Amino acid sequence: MTGTATPGTPAAPTEQPPVRLVVVSAGLSEPSSTRMLADRLAEATRLALDERGLTAEVRTVELRDLAARIAHTFVTGFAAGELRDALDEVAAADGLIAVTPVFSASYSGLFKSFFDVLDKDTLVGKPVLFGATGGTPRHSLVLDHALRPLFSYLRAVTSPTAVYAATDDWAAADDGITPSLPGRIARAGGEFAGLLSPGRFSADGPEQEEVLPFEQQLAALRLPEE
After folding, report:
1. Is residue 18 within 8 Å of residue 57, measured between CB atoms?
2. Which residues pair with 28 in a beta bridge?
């Protein structure tokens, strides 16, 4: 007997493949608050995808372990070994989560160097959720004056909410004015999951609504003749 479906029998729903997420953490210490934030953003995204009936496949790249290879690539112009694997993982991912510590009021040199050796077209149209960690809340503007311009330049689709975590944020409760860190992480993960939902984005960027020619729009406003 063949596997042909009986006429009139509805076809079984096609199972969606897992959403491939790559998490890039530029933390230098171990344990690292940068890695902690990256993991929590990934978990919030996974939970939000689960609510949409989707599963997530998460791969984490620790830039600390690739620092020497990144520097070597600047000299040789050729990425090899584990760095080549990491770059390929980013290229194949459906979405990217990237988190950096703040040094001198901006992203770290290691973080920037990784994206400097990444092919310039790798992130075109790819959803990216980014975050940063630092010792003081005064560095929170790094999200919009450094990180968002970087990923916009690389033509990525940046998630609306990015997350900055200062040292005091990890234990701070929601005061009714500023959302707590867990609340901001959950919101960011939910928005990012929306960008990762099938059909929301194409390889050429966000799907565009059909635009009617101006003449047709104008004709629709004309009063009917008596």
Report:
1. yes
2. none
Q: Which domains does the chain have, with CATH numbers?
A: 19-205 (3.40.50.360)
- Model pTM above 0.85: no
Can you tell me which residue has the tokens 């959803």?
Answer: 127
Beta carbons of 106 and 144 less than 8 angstroms apart = no
The answer to whether residues 153 and 183 touch, using CB atoms and an 8 Å cutoff, is no
- Write out pLDDT tens, residues 56-100: 999 999 999 999 999 999 999 999 999 999 999 999 999 999 999
Place of tokens 């919101």: 187
DSSP letters spanning 147-181: IHHHHHHTT-EE-S--EEEEGGGGTPPP-SSS--H
Non-local (6+) Cβ contacts of 147 within 8 A are: 98, 100, 107, 130, 132, 162
Handedness of CA 12, 197, 86, 73 (dihedral sign): positive
